[in-house]
Write a structure and sequence with these properties.
It is a single chain. With about 300 residues, this protein is an alpha/beta fold. It contains 10 helices and 11 strands. The strands form 2 sheets. The chain has a 6-stranded mixed β-sheet. Strands 3-2-1-4-5 form a 5-stranded mixed β-sheet. Helix 4 links the parallel strand 4 and strand 5. Helix 7 packs across helix 9. The longest helix has 28 residues.
């Protein structure tokens, strides 16, 4: 079954063609440079850019394929995401489905991130599994009993992990998007140089993620250091990133240990999963349980895209 899928959930205009779980084409037009000048995503600008590019991206993804002959289904992200950005992709998908008399499938963006390791994969996926989605807007740990049968085990009560990393980068003087810059700077830093509080350390129920307290502590720490040099900034970046990832490991370990089910795999998706240090942490955390971690075959599938 050939599916033409559309995703305009935030600041990427994305269209893909897939055959079952094989990715035939995956076109993404990024708006990052447009929003970087403003220090963050401007919803009205994102909507306008989606409208300008959607037809171009659809045609580029199709290539020489004939939509009338080669496509069986249309799919579109319906949420969560920026509502005025989402409506551009939904409208286009409806137009195509109506014009070519094709079924239209609504897609949940978080579920798509969670299942993105399936794309082009030859791995054997066994259930029940855990799904970990870490992005700029989502931090969730999900029990995957089977495809379509899910239970959220833990989620953020304030900032998402990606959002927290971006804010930390901004406090250190870096622009948007800051998470990737923070990772690069942190490589040269000492994660033990500064002490920051581990979120929810006294919380006995490990079903929550929280980054607001850590962010506040980081603000105070940065304010205390007058005229920080290059090494100070690297140490601050490493310290914040380390504690943020410690929190993920803490909740993940608790949920695995206390599960009444034999968890077979960990599926990881979302933009923050591109962080190399985080990937190492996830492999380390699951190794003791003899649980393989599955990441998308291509790092581009961690960001917003339509193939997932």
């Amino acid at each position: 079954m050939n599916i033409l899928s559309i995703d305009t959930s935030c600041d990427e205009t994305a269209v893909a063609i897939t055959y079952n779980t094989k990715v035939l084409s995956n076109t993404v037009w990024s708006q990052t440079t447009l929003h970087a000048r403003l220090g963050g995503i401007m919803p009205s600008l994102a909507q306008r850019a989606h409208k300008e590019k959607i037809d171009f991206v659809v045609q580029k993804a199709l290539g020489t394929r004939n939509l009338a002959l080669d496509i069986d289904v249309i799919a579109a992200t319906v949420g969560p995401g920026l509502s005025i950005a989402l409506e551009v992709g939904i409208k286009k998908a409806k137009e195509l489905a109506k014009e070519y008399k094709l079924p239209l499938i609504p897609i949940n963006h978080v579920e798509a991130h969670m299942l993105s390791p399936f794309a082009n994969s030859k791995s054997e996926f066994k259930f029940p599994a855990l799904g970990l989605v870490l992005s700029g807007g989502t931090t969730q740990l999900i029990l995957v009993k089977n495809i379509g049968n899910y239970k959220v085990l833990a989620e953020t009560v304030d900032d998402a992990l990606g959002e927290a990393l971006d804010k930390a980068a901004r406090l250190l003087g870096f622009g948007y998007p800051g998470g990737a810059i923070l990772e690069k700077i942190a490589k040269n830093g000492d994660p033990n140089k500064y002490t920051l509080p581990l979120p929810l350390i006294n919380d006995r129920v490990k079903n929550r993620f929280s980054y607001s307290g850590l962010k506040t502590a980081f603000v105070r720490l940065v304010e205390k250091i007058k005229n920080p040099n290059k090494q100070d900034i690297a140490d601050l970046a490493a310290s914040f990133q380390s504690v943020a990832f410690d929190h993920i490991e803490k909740v993940l370990n608790f949920q695995i240990r206390n599960s009444k089910l034999k968890i077979r795999n960990l599926l990881a998706g979302g933009g923050v999963i591109n962080n190399i240090e985080l990937r190492k942490r996830l492999r380390r955390a699951t190794k003791k349980y003899d649980m393989p971690v599955h990441f998308p075959y291509n790092k581009k599938l961690n960001g917003d895209n339509a193939a997932m």
